[in-house]
Specification:
The chain is α/β, with parallel strands linked by helices and 289 residues long. It folds into two domains: 101 residues, Orthogonal Bundle (Arc Repressor Mutant, subunit A); 137 residues, Rossmann fold. Helix content is 48%, strand content 12%. It has 13 helices and seven strands. Strands 5-4-3-6-7 form a five-stranded parallel sheet, with helices on both faces. A two-stranded antiparallel sheet has the order 1-2. The N and C termini lie far apart (48 Å). The C terminus is likely disordered. Keywords: Methyltransferase, S-adenosyl-L-methionine, Transferase. GO terms for molecular function: O-methyltransferase activity; protein dimerization activity.
Length: 289
């Protein structure tokens, strides 16, 4: 009986990971497209030195932001498209090509601004504000994610909400995340915080108050702030501003800012497919087009 139950749990866990693998399946090809568009393999191959190409040298060669390029290269190294190795003096690390990266060398032109912006004349969020059907599509996608992720977060982080009376979900969409949290922790008063056009179609849920506003201006005061899958959409300066507003919203020393986000691990070695599929943590990077 115990073995049968364990097998069922293993199958359910694998199914959950398979879903995430399908959802994020675009990331591999999107990252490879970045390498092709920026001509990264050519820049490394044509570098005058026999040394691995440092991030500074590579960003200069392909005219890309070092901060953005570093994140792309970390993902591509993780996927085995490039190698990251120390320079001869051991004072820095640099990048070298692999047989795979040489195969994707291509004279494709760099496309800027992002295709979505170029086609619609505005970014994704401005477009969603003006097109309610598109906004609804985004909101439902985020709600689907919340239904899968938030119960697991709540189960693994029970102690985080001890002594917490009020929680604000920043960029909470239609309120799915906050609705799950107040059911799991019924002593919490929840606030679902998002832009006016999103709050206009938010769910009416017991224990949750929908509040409209802009996270770049201010965030409602509370004991804790949760921000799930928001920061990866913004650059460093915007993230700093958002996090500062989160900090100001909670009480000093005892307030909590809870971040649920995709990050990329530090492991540099290429993983075989079985290892990559084994854990959700190996799905690392969002690329917004």
């Amino acid at each position: 009986m115990e073995e049968s139950k364990r097998n069922l749990l293993d199958e359910e866990a694998k199914a959950s990971l398979d879903i995430w693998r399908y959802v994020f399946g675009f990331a591999d090809i999107a990252a490879a497209k970045c390498a092709i568009d920026l001509k990264i393999p050519e820049a490394i191959e044509n570098h005058p030195s026999s040394q691995p190409v440092t991030l500074t040298e590579l960003s200069s060669a392909v005219s890309a932001s070092p901060s953005h390029l570093r994140r792309i290269m970390r993902f591509l190294v993780h996927q085995g498209l490039f190698k990251e190795v120390p320079t001869k003096d051991g004072l820095a690390t640099g990048y070298t090509n692999t047989p795979l990266s040489r195969l994707v060398s291509s004279p494709v032109n760099v496309s800027t601004p992002p295709p979505f912006d170029a086609v619609h004349g505005k970014d994704l969020w401005a477009f969603a504000q003006d097109n309610l059907c598109h906004s609804q599509l985004i909101n439902e996608a985020m709600a689907c994610d919340a239904r899968r992720v938030v119960p697991r977060v709540a189960g693994a982080c029970q102690g985080l909400f001890d002594g917490v009376a009020t929680v604000v979900d920043v960029g909470g969409g239609t309120g799915e995340t906050m609705g799950i949290l107040v059911k799991e922790f019924p002593w919490i008063k929840g606030f679902n915080f998002d832009l006016p056009h999103v709050i206009e179609v938010a769910q009416v849920l017991d224990g949750v108050e929908n509040v409209e506003g802009d996270m770049f201006d201010s965030i409602p005061a509370s004991d804790a702030v949760i921000i799930k899958w928001v920061l990866h959409d913004w650059g460093d300066k915007d993230c700093i501003k958002i996090l500062k507003n989160c900090k100001e919203a909670v009480l000093p020393n005892i307030g909590k800012v809870l971040i649920v986000e995709c990050v990329i691990g530090e492991k540099k070695n290429t993983m075989i497919a079985e290892e990559r599929d084994d854990k959700l943590e190996h799905v690392r990077l969002h690329l917004t087009w």
